[in-house]
Amino acid sequence: MRLQEVRYGTGAEWYGSDSLFGPDGVYRRCDSLVPFAPGDFWRIDLMARDQEDRYAPVVPYDDFQ
Asked: What is the pLDDT of residue 19?
């Protein structure tokens, strides 16, 4: 089993895997590591929210890459 960081981003335009959504995108990293084992299947649902997500704080673009 391996503990893995879960992070994600969103934005108006995708610039590719090197630039992601660019500096205007919003990037988040979950506070806790997720255990992954061979053969595991995980489904992560991302939902738009009006309020700040306390479990996945915003990460600056330069720190996300």
From this structure: 95
